[in-house]
Design a protein that fits this description.
By secondary structure, this protein is α+β, with helices and mostly antiparallel strands. The chain has helices spanning 42-49, 81-88, 107-111, 130-138, 147-154, 171-174, 178-181, and strands spanning 51-54, 57-62, 65-69, 72-75, 117-120, 123-126, 206-212, 219-222, 234-237, 252-255, 264-265, 269-271. The protein has a single domain, classed as paralog of FGE (formylglycine-generating enzyme), CATH 3.90.1580. The chain has seven helices and twelve strands.
């Protein structure tokens, strides 16, 4: 069994959400008519404090596909093994490191598959999944990013300089991939960030998006998401430590929602309201 001694949670004081409690966005206070959620675990509170504002805008996601996004928050880092442990109490990863990205986590483990449901921006999450449990602990509305949000943030949002990779035209500056990874993941944030101050959107681990995988239609769209029931596989983006060539910010791939692998991880998003 993998040693998890450095994932010890310490003392936390959490007031669980009662039935029907209003969930806020990912910054700001809990609705004052309800009791506050007190978070003293620095690992959990760090998930909230490491959010980056991605100002909304319109961009060409693909040739002939123009997407307008509202302002949202994106995690500065991929979800780490210590954060996963603090929420789920398990350590699924092949490569041990508290500050390394959690991997071997499936879309189903993040979104959940059974129990009570929580609908966030039209996306459904189940109580046995990471997102539902995290939102219970924090009173927030964390979720997976949509594919459009992921690409917009990876490209630098409204500050984009048009780099091929997330933050550079030189893959090694921003990405852990096969030529430089040494055959494993690395602690998050060790490479240079992109224009928004977000790390590892190229390389380290592939990142799950909420969307079902399919052909991207042409036209103009606002805050699009392909709901999970519309396809049998899910979108993954960004590339991982084992890719011979670092995928560009435009590259998209799919995987089955139950798949776990040492190159599969994720980061979180949240709407402003």
């Amino acid at each position: 069994m993998m040693n998890t001694k450095f994932f010890a949670r310490g003392i936390i004081a959490l007031l669980p959400l009662g039935a029907g409690m209003f969930l806020t966005g990912c910054q700001g206070n809990i609705d004052p008519i309800d009791p506050p959620v007190i978070i003293t675990d620095p690992v959990i509170s760090g998930i909230i404090s490491n959010l980056v504002t991605v100002h909304g805008g319109t961009f060409e996601m693909r040739t002939g596909r123009n997407v307008t996004l509202s302002t949202f928050y994106m995690s500065r880092y991929e979800v780490t093994q210590s954060q996963w442990y603090a929420v789920m109490g398990t350590q699924p990863s092949d490569f041990t490191g508290a500050n390394s990205p959690v991997e071997r986590v499936s879309w189903n483990m993040i979104v959940g598959t059974t129990g009570a449901t929580m609908v966030i921006d039209g996306m459904t999450y189940y109580e046995n999944g990471f997102v539902y449990k995290l939102n219970q602990l924090t009173g927030k509305k964390f979720r997976l990013p949509t594919e459009a949000e992921w690409q917009f943030a990876a490209s630098g949002g409204i500050w984009s300089m048009g780099f091929a990779y997330s933050g550079s035209n030189t893959a090694g500056d921003v990405a852990w991939y096969q030529p430089n990874s040494g055959g494993s993941t690395h602690p998050v944030g060790d490479k240079a960030p992109n224009e928004l101050g977000i790390y590892d959107m190229s390389g380290n681990v592939w990142e799950w998006c909420y969307d079902a995988y399919g052909t991207l239609a042409t036209g103009s769209f606002t805050n699009p998401v392909a709901l999970g029931t519309s396809g049998s596989t899910r979108v993954v983006r960004g590339g991982g430590w084992n890719n011979n060539d670092a995928p560009t910010v435009l590259f998209r791939l799919d995987d089955t929602p139950g798949d776990t692998d040492s190159h599969l991880g994720f980061r979180l998003a949240c709407s402003v309201n």
